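Protocol step 4 of 5: obtain the predicted structure for the target chain.
Materials: sequence only (see below). No template structures provided, no constraints applied. The aim of this step is simply to have a reference model before the mutagenesis design in step 5. Sequence pasted as it appears in the construct record:
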Amino acid sequence: MAFHSSQQQGGHSSTFRHKKKQQLTSVYAADKKGGNSQDKTIEINSPSSQQEGGTNIIVSKLSSITETITSSKTAKGRAILLLVSFLYGTLNVSLRAIYASDGAPAASVLSLVRQCLSVLTFIPIILSVNSNKKGGEETSFSSYLEDSDDEEMKRPMWMAAFELAFWNFGAYNNSNYAVDAIASSRAQGLINAGLLFSPAARASFLTQTSVVLTPLISAVAGESINSSVWGGCALALVGLFLISTSSVDSSAVIDASISGESSGTSNVLPESFSFNQGDAMILLGALSWSFYIFRTSQIAKKYSELDLQFTKTALLAGMYGAWFLSTAAATLQSGGTLLSLWSGWQSLPVWILLVYSAAGPGAIADLLQQQGQKEVSASESNIILCLESIFAAFVAFLLLGEVSSLKEVIGGLFIVVAAILASK
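Step 4 output (structure tokens):
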């Protein structure tokens, strides 16, 4: 009897579920015809709707993960550029120490020797990477990161390297280590020649205008520049102005040893200010550095860091070689000797500093800068690299015992705030 009752209950339950299913089917069909909003509710409760809902959740999760990865890549790029700015800061101090040594090399000699040492630095890196490739291991330096049909990829890699070498040569000048205020240590012929006509302090400030020129170039090229980046550029320029005008006296002695005559302690903007040819050369040097940063950001993702930077460094060595030959010819013509271009060449400490400057702030910094600029815009990259001035002051304090002035400290704070603002 109990068993029969159970069957009856089961039958009733089965009949109820069958009727309920029919009702739901009828409602679904009616709503489908009438476009009733209940259709969505029923679809959600159906197995297929639940599957679609699960798919949407997965897509949402993947999107969130992608955004996290993207932001982490940007953060990694900023961290890499921060390391690069530190390396550039140590370069400033290293070369100032070389110039302060007895029988210091001429700017063209120092440039050529450093660049040749940088080329040699790449050799063990290339051998190590090739060895890892043969073993099937992943390397830190990528090959071609983007397979695209743009015009950039249609030209040989050496042409891209030559372009970067050209902008780099136009903007690199080892003589601005003689001017402590020109902390970027990036100017060659243009700024070197400009220092013959412009006071050191003014030259240092005009060099730093690259922090504003870079976003201007990017904007003209059609890139969107955030207001925070523009604000960061303005703050960085103010900070660089304070730093570049705070150490004219200390730089004058070294500047005179290179240019052959004292630059004095002229103000950046004297009362009888006039724009001369030296100022124009220095601004062109700053513009050249801005183009280097801008083009590096555009090229960075398209070529292997190792291939591109090694080729660029080798090409630069050739350019520096031409500069050295012209200097040597002028020296011989004036009755001097080649030894006079570097009478202290036997100094071991100087060679140690040269090797370090060629390896760390040279080859390795170039590789890291290209890696960092893959993820960070040219404008923000320039602001981060301006932190070099702060690192240079810190290293100079530790190694040389130099104490920064109040203006330098305030200027450094401006640059730090600028870097934080630009990263927003």
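Step 4 remarks: The longest helix spans residues 47-99. The chain has a mean pLDDT of 74.
Proceed to step 5.
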